[in-house]
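seq:
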Amino acid sequence: MGATDAARADEAVLAVAAAGLLEGVAGVVGLGVDLVELDRMATVLERTPRFADRVFTPAETEYCRARRDPTERFAARFAAKEATLKAMGLGLWSVPMTSIEVVRDDESGQPSLVLHDAAAAAASAQGIASWRLTITHTDRVAVALALALGPGADPGASSG
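struct:
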């Protein structure tokens, strides 16, 4: 099994495990998980310089580029955007990727989502009132899990 196949298998296991944990949980509208290989992200950023402008907001790009090697941050944010689309049941590029923005709390570092324009409209149409987001990475992959919550969900729920 190649690295890409292994990453897809890892992603599938994560999705199944997360879905099982949420079965019957009130207020959950959708769940999305995505995994991005850091090597692939580095290649895309190198070969397609305009990729970052098409996918990330200026604030996201500034945050990512503040590191000597921004690859892990870009990969984690891309995974979060894809996980968000999956939670809404939408395909990749169905809304502009810049309409899904990953922000972080200055004090805690906790990531969260801000949806703009088309992504905000899609979420609203599906009854999504709030989001929970968790992202992480290793030296090989970045993973994100996005949880879409309806109006009755507990707004005080935590994420890591």
